[in-house]
Amino acid sequence: MSVSHASERIPRNVSRKALRFQLMLAGMLLIATVIMHVDALRLGRTSV
């Protein structure tokens, strides 16, 4: 119940900013993981 009250208190534009920030963060994490995987594959290929 208290959670719904808190969400009601927060303006929509603020929540939208937070959502955008979360999306940006998720995208950065995804790119970082992809780069790490590519680097690992490269290292594996060079070592073999």
Précis, in short:
The chain is mainly α and 48 residues long.
Q: Could you give the topology of this structure?
A:
Elements: H1 2-9, H2 12-47
The helix-strand sequence is HH
- The chain-level structural class is mainly alpha
Beta-strand portion reads under 5%
What fraction, in percent, of the residue positions are helical? over 70%
Rounded radius of gyration (Å) = 19 Å
**What is the subunit organization of this protein?**
single chain
**DSSP summary, beta strand count:** 0
Task: Describe the overall structure.
The protein is mostly helical and 48 residues long. The chain has a domain at 22-48. It has 2 helices and no strands. The protein has helices spanning 2-9, 12-47. It starts with a helix and ends with a helix. The model has no long low-confidence stretch (mean pLDDT 82).
List keywords for this structure.
2 helices; 0% strand; 48 residues; rod-shaped; mainly alpha
